[in-house]
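Workshop exercise sheet. Pairs work together: one partner reads the sequence aloud, the other fills in the structure field after running the prediction. Swap roles for the next sheet.
Pair: D.N. / O.F.
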Amino acid sequence: MTVPGRRSSTFSRLLRSGFTDPSSAARLLDADALAAVRTDPVLLDALGATADPDLALLGLVRLAEAQAPEELPLLLDTLVSAKPLRDRLLGVLGASEALGDHLARHPRDWQALVTYEATDLHPGLAEFERGLAGAHDPVHLRVAYRRCLLSIAARDVCGTIDLAQTAAELADLATATLRAALRIASAAAPADAAQCRLAVIAMGKCGGNELNYVSDVDVIFVGDAAPGHDEGKAIQAATRLASHLMRICSETTVEGTIWPVDANLRPEGRNGPLVRTLASHLAYYQRWAKTWEFQALLKARAVAGDAALGAEYVAAITPLVWQAAERENFVADVQKMRRRVVDNIPAAQVDRELKLGPGGLRDVEFAVQLLQLVHGRSDATLHSGTTLDALHALAAGGYVGRADAAQLHDAYRFLRAMEHRIQLYRLRRTHLVPEDEHDLRRLGRSLGLRTEPVSELNKAWRRHASVVRRLHEKLFYRPLLDAVAQLTPGETRLSPRAAGQRLEALGYADPAAALRHLEALASGVTRKAAIQRTLLPVLLGWFADSADPDAGLLGFRKVSDALGKTPWYLRLLRDEGAAAENLARVLSAGRLAPDLLMRAPEAVALLGDPGGLAPRTHDALEQEVLAAVGRAPHPEAGVAAARGVRRRELFRTAAADIIGSYGTEDSPAEEDHGALVDRVGSAVSDLTAVTIAGALRAAVQGHWGDTLPTRFAVIGVGRFGGHELGYGSDADVLFVHEPREGVDEQEAAKAAQAVIAEMRRLLQVPTADPPLLIDADLRPEGRSGPLVRTLASYAAYYRRWSMTWESQALLRAEPVAGDIELGARFIELIDPLRYPVEGLGEDAVRDIRRLKARMEAERLPRGADPTLHTKLGRGGLSDVEWTVQLIQMRHAWAEPGLRTTRTRPALAAAQAAGLIPTEEAQILDEAWVLATRVRNAVMLVRGRAGDTFPSEARELAAVGRYLGYAPGRVGEVLDDYRRITRRARAVVDELFYGA
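Structure field:
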């Protein structure tokens, strides 16, 4: 019992010793079992040195109370007199609640910590096998396993062994356990054991001699017939033995479980046979295996069973592992594997994930293994299954920068130490950093952080995770720059061959050219080259994430050559976090945006401005264009300025579209694809309208001064009037004029004709800027009719001659330039035609259906796949637009919401009015948005317009990436397009054709 006057001093001392609950600790110290040592100052100091003094004291009391009366003095005497035992025992009790429970159940096992000889300090496989030799059933195997684990944990928490030694000892203990389990299984079925040979191959961390405290032990089983036995029956017997071995280790007994044995890395995974012959394994790996399977085989190691058969297996698969980088699909597989797979981690846990989270252990392990596969085919020093050993070999060979390797080494050791201590506490398989303050305190103290353990732990963890995240990509690319820059004499670097192998493995089709670009950008001692060497490791990773890394790097070199002497360019990329990534995405997504950028490289500045990619309003653009035209000395200069604005704004629109579709590290891809399409359509349509307005102003100024002899308006039709232009769309227009008062009609008509001709000429003058083609073929009488008419002439024509298809074409008519009042009167004229009172008659509906059917039969290009043609194909743009337009012509007279030139708002209005069921409206909208995005993607990727998917593989992959598909998923792109448009066509058949 505590002496009454000394409570406060005991309380204070317990606090100073690190106890968080001094009252409970004082009561535990008063336990009868500790009567002989409770006042010993050595004991209190030793408890205070543990990770969790409260937990250590509780475990000690439980252990003491579990001792037989005659054995308790031995425990207490040894505890106070033998420092090694004291440190080991209390260290374990303060770090592991689970091992404290084990000692309470098996109170004599503490004696396993008493010996302090050389073999005890660093036991090997033979010592662990001896420790498990007396276990002849699963229960006793668990007890013996934990007794051995107790000794490893003791050496670990006391610092007798480091992280790598701990992981290796855990792997040795797992090997001994698998051997013991196979021995028990064979003893239970001697007939099975007699007729087969069975080898157990360790994979994963066990195979790599770097096991955790609690982890699945990954294995592969190889079987064969014993001499004189049938192979089929032998493999069945081996399968029974392997299954029993797995159960012995995995099943829960009164002594709990050891760890799950996972055989899912075998050929065909869980769908394949548990045991195969060596020949069957080789046949699978030579014909069917994926790149990730060879990556897994890096760590294959024979650990139990028939040693000769295991050695044969390892010898046979090793050459296949180091030839994996030469496989045809290696690059695509690597790109898929390099994209982080964290979708299955609950969002609330991502930031606490040590293994799979950003900057986690998987990042280091994957990077090291990938570099081993790429360079190990020609360098046997890289053939190690242990991550830290392989990292050291990569650095020694110049495949990884020494400074980067050192930082990764330290970060990996710290993160693995965290993982070990987290798992050791309750011996549970977890990679999550705890949230509870007490758990974090114990974790921090166990890692030697004693002043402010929680804050110090969080700070160190975030710092190391940040190092891993930052270096993960640079690890691949920085040695490439070292190889071409050659700034440090005598340092080992990548050979040209090794550098080419690495670039090829990362997706570069022309490694030699890529190396030339890197040399041009990064070599030398100038400040510019130094900044490039800082930027390029990250940029190369972003380029490699695209479908065309070579184009991205070439584009970056061109932009850098053009802007390299400007003071702001490299500073922008270095200091504005988003600018460099945005530029990498834009340069590697296809030809259009880089072509636009190269005509005015200073537009790079838009990529670093937080609001730089937001589309500008129509009024702001028109004001800029008209002001530029007004200042120009002649029409050509004025329209050149207008086309320059158009080029810059096309780049802004394309860049925003690409970045929104791809996403960035800090901003995920836009999920609302309809919004992306609408933004592009509105921006390009506004841009086309103000460019035409500028050309009209220039043409008038150059020949007539301020005023044209006739009022003149440009009416946008088709996708232009519908605000749905794509990057490669022509501008479909109608021209209308009205002679000014006192002007002869013939003179007015000549002036109108002349201004149109001049506008067209100015917009197509060969310059560095893309031309703008004006198409007036939708005018009355088509190409046979006059190019421009007066408003009265339009009225007379529509009154007398108008066809149903012409009324349909007018559904998307909207003034875009010229005389505002005249444009408004034109709309008043055509409204009764496009929105006929009481809707269309049945004859008109039949005419529209006949015309649509004829177009489908005649206008689809010869040889085109009707399931993949975005405009005229099944369920494509034409199908959806004609269906919506038929509804408009039938019902817009009564439904004001349908009186719009835009397809998607008209479709939404039809659905809101109950004219289309919601599900069918969504099907049509999805198909229209997808087809529009494909057309935009084709123009972005190829730099020229197209209505079908590209046939060239790299271009098709780039279209897929723009649409949101990961590398290697091209087949899904086409399958999904066909599925979505097939559903849309079924709706069209019902709503348009009445099927």
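Discussion prompt: The chain is about 60% helix and 5% strand. What would you look at next?
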